[in-house]
Amino acid sequence: MSSVLSFYQSAHEELRREGFIATTMPDPSEKLWNRKVMTMKREELDKLKTQRLKRIVKWAWENSEFYRKFWKSKGFDPEVIKDWRDVVKIPILRKDDLRNDLSANPPFGSIMVPELARRIRFVGATSGSTGMPTFQGWGALELDYFEEAQARYLWTFAGVRPTTVYANYLNMSGFYSWGPPVVEAAMWRCGATAIAGGGETYFSWKSRHNLIFRLWKVDVLATTPWLHRLIGEEAKKEGWETPFKVLLLHGGAAAKNTKEKLFQVHPNAKLAISVWGTTDGHMAVEVPGLDGQLVVWEDMEIFDIVDPKTDEPASEGERGELIATLLNHFTMPLIRYSLGDYVKNEFTTDPDPQFGITHMRFTEPIPGRVEWMFKVKGKLLLPIYVEDAVNEIADTTGMFNIFVYANEMDKLKIRIETYKTSVDKDYDAKAREILANRIGLQPDDVEIEWVEPGKTIWTGYKLQVFVDQRKKK
Per the database record, which ranges form the AMP-dependent ligase C-terminal domain (predicted)? Predict the structure, then answer.
């Protein structure tokens, strides 16, 4: 056996042996999936992050041709990493760097460790909505840890146990890491019944999906906030109540008013939890009872935030670009990789009062991607700010599309679905006033295109809240 493969297998065995990947299901009365890891002392977590950061940087330098060349070109020496806080000394890796490498060295580029590339168990891919898709290779270790991370919040926050019925209405594409691997493994770890519905087929097979929800009495539904709303509205229209007790909100931050609307259309739901994640395997999950505070499993990854214009670390309390380092991805290391999300550089490490989890939490939601920011009359906005306002307008479905036609816009151009068969001037004026007041504009700065339900733009199971109409250079 080669030294590379031997190290990989030993690392995997170590993670399981030391309990970072749980190998047995807890007693159903246990609140936490992995109490030992989820309640580690802060000093132990810091020591662990330092050890794992040094290990993954050394591994990438020695085994990934891409990182050796990339880091040398930036003048980076792995020996400068003495502590996990030194992560900010590592050059930032962005999606275009990966795309260029993939184009020159298909299919995975030179970033993947060659010997482990021959043993991948799952191929993940981004949508490619902003250009060429990027691919990730997952080996046995990476999948095992990812499923462990899923089980932590499913068991602890969503109450998933044996006899729970869970329906996954995310993308069931074979390239989507939050699809089949979650349904086929993380759910089974919790002993639950898993239904791999697939949100992208709901529109073409609506009656069948609604029948499944009713017959199977689904307890937990995972999909986007917008599809959650649509399913609830469809149920009300057909005269039945959805059975869901827990709503897992994926694919985009849920505005406060969105959650309130979801509880109205899902009368049996007691909990709505925002789940942020990426195809690469990053995640942060809202802790019940702490609205908008998303916990990060620090034994898995390190986050830092930079000013997107300078790449320098953002000051505490400032907003910037989210950068992440996966600490246990050896097959295809992703070290100081830009996730493109726009977040506030403010975290708390106080144990949460309900579970006693010690891992850090974002103090506010992750509102959206840097590339989704737009300006109207010089005011910087994100779709989530608009979404909250749309949900205050009477007789709407909550579905909307923002059309971004220039870098500096003089009007907010938005398409909104309404139940009204005809829209009069008073209704339009009131809606523009609500939008304007909520986001700091004047009513004349807002232009609404009113459409009937079902006429907004979707991409699969995601509402396309940001429609970029700017001319490409």
Answer: 378-470
What CATH number should be reported for the domain holding residue 379? 3.30.300.30
Give the model's confidence band at 381: pLDDT under 50 very low, under 70 low, under 90 confident, else very high: very high
DSSP letter string, 419-439 = S-SS--HHHHHHHHHHHHHHH
In a domain, 430, yes or no: yes
Q: Is 352 buried (19+), middle (13-18) or exposed (0-12) by CB count in 10 A? A: middle
Q: Is 65 exposed, middle or buried (0-12, 13-18, 19+ CB in 10 A)?
A: middle
Backbone angles phi, psi at 304, to 5 degrees: -140, 165
> What Cα–Cα distance (Å) separates residue 220 from each residue in 160, 165, 198, 239?
8, 6, 14, 21
Instruction: Write out the H or E segment, with its range, that includes residue 302.
Output: strand 301-306
Helices (H) and strands (E) in the chain, counts: 14, 24
Q: Using alpha carbons only, what angle is made at residue 451 by residues 447 and 453, rounded to the nearest 5 degrees? A: 140
Reported as a single tens digit per residue, the pLDDT across 410-445 is: 999 999 999 999 999 999 999 999 999 999 999 999
> Of 226, 173, 164, which is closest to residue 195 (Cα–Cα)?
164
| Tokens of residue 149, six digits | 């991370």
Show the tokens assigned to 409: 């816009």
Helix (H, G, I), strand (E, B) or coil at 430: helix
Work out how many domains the chain is built from and give that number: 1
The range of the structural domain enclosing residue 394 comes to 374-468
pLDDT per residue over 68-123, tens digit each? 999 999 999 999 999 999 999 999 999 889 889 988 998 888 999 999 998 998 88
